[in-house]
Amino acid sequence: MLRRKSNPIYYHEGYIFRHFKCLSDGSPLLYCDNRKTEVGCNALAHLRNGSVVLKRAHNGHKANDGIAKAKLAKTSLKERAGVCSKPPRELLFDAKLQFGTIPVDIGRTKENYARMIQRVRKSECDDCARVNALISEFTGLMSTDIDGVLDYAPIPPQLPLTGLEFLKAIRSARKYT
Q: What is the pLDDT along the chain (177 residues), one digit of tens a residue?
């Protein structure tokens, strides 16, 4: 399953802006984070020299510094989890040092953060690209299954198999084990 590309977010006076697209001059166009919610805020901003310049004012909601900082903390925690191998406990500690305890604890529990970090770090097995291809082709044993456990099922010697033939071979092999 493909993951959604997360666009960078920017903080401005208690509001969160998300990158929408780049303009012809190369500057990013930013929309309010509440644009696609029931609020439907039409705020618009540009990023000039690293600072957010508001072009259209917010409507339908007020600035909420706590929620904005909580979203910043969550996205920075996701980014850091993808590049470093620290345990979730240490990542949360670092985020609390950077953003404070209230923004980090405002919307999630430690278990939710640990699951989020695990999903960011989850890597697929070697054969997943071939399995998920338009025309599935299996070239041998799957090295790991979804849970990361080694999975050795006897496969008949006629390779490569189509997806349906592979499933039949696995089912027949599991009957005898």
A: 445 566 788 999 889 998 888 888 888 899 998 888 888 888 999 988 888 989 998 988 888 888 888 888 888 888 888 888 888 889 889 989 998 888 888 868 888 888 888 888 876 655 666 666 666 665 555 555 555 555 555 544 555 556 677 777 777 766 554
The C-alpha atoms of residue 156 and residue 134 are separated, in whole angstroms, by 23
How far is the C-alpha of 159 from the C-alpha of 34, rounded, in Å?
A: 52
Give yes or no for a contact between 34 and 42, defined as CB atoms under 8 angstroms apart. no
What is this structure's pTM? 0.61
Q: Say whether the peptide bond before residue 160 is cis (omega within 30 degrees of 0).
A: yes
CA distance 116 to 110: 10
Specify the 3-state DSSP secondary structure of 71: helix
Residues 53 and 30: their CA atoms lie apart, in Å, by 9
Contacts of 91 (CB under 8 A, 6+ apart): 77, 80, 81, 84, 113, 117
Q: Are the CB atoms for 27 and 10 separated by under 8 Å?
A: no
Cα 108 to its chain centre, rounded Å, is 16
Q: Are strands 15-22 and 9-12 parallel, antiparallel or unpaired?
A: antiparallel
